[in-house]
Amino acid sequence: MPAALLSRYWWQPAFVLALLLIGLPYWWIPYRQLNLPDALLGPGLVVLAVLALAVRAWSGKGWWPVTLRLGAAVPAVVMLRVIFDVVRVPSSHNLWPFELVMALLLGGAVAGAGALLGSLLARVMHIGARDEP
Q1: Cα separations (Å) of 5 from 8, 11, 79, 90, 131?
Q2: Among 6, 11, 88, 117, which has the highest number of CB atoms less than 10 A from its own CB?
């Protein structure tokens, strides 16, 4: 049973870790000082790339599932901020769809690069990447 759980829920611990490491510094920035995508840049994105590399190399999951699931941590961070700020001040985040698109592109690029490096690492070291969806 544990192997089946790991096979099914492989991405969730990495997603939560990336969400927190990217989100905590971002959520503490005052709204008036918020500037995307600069506010998202930091060590959390490096951790996201490393997580995508590790998950891709050792989970046996394909490049697309790793990139899509782990890359979604960045737009999730932005969406949580938008929801929280709009509840407090409804007129804030008038352009939230653009914020979300920027976060999607950034998260996808970082997770995709990490997953690509994980594919290369798995190929060179002959470890667990089997290209399963």
Answers
A1: 5, 11, 28, 41, 19
A2: 11
Q: How many domains does the chain have?
A: 1
| Residue 130 counted as domain residue | no
Model pTM score: 0.86
Answer yes or no: is pLDDT of 9 > 80.
Answer: no
What's the helix, strand, coil split of the chain in %, to 5?
75, 0, 25
Tokens describing residue 47: 């951790």
Distances (CA, A) of 105 to 6, 28, 56, 129: 28, 22, 19, 25
Tell me which residue range forms the domain holding 86.
Answer: 2-125
Q: What residues pair up with 61 in beta bridges, in sequence order?
A: 132
Question: What are 35's two structure tokens?
Answer: 């500037």
What is the tens place of the pLDDT at every residue in 116-133? Answer: 999 999 888 876 545 555
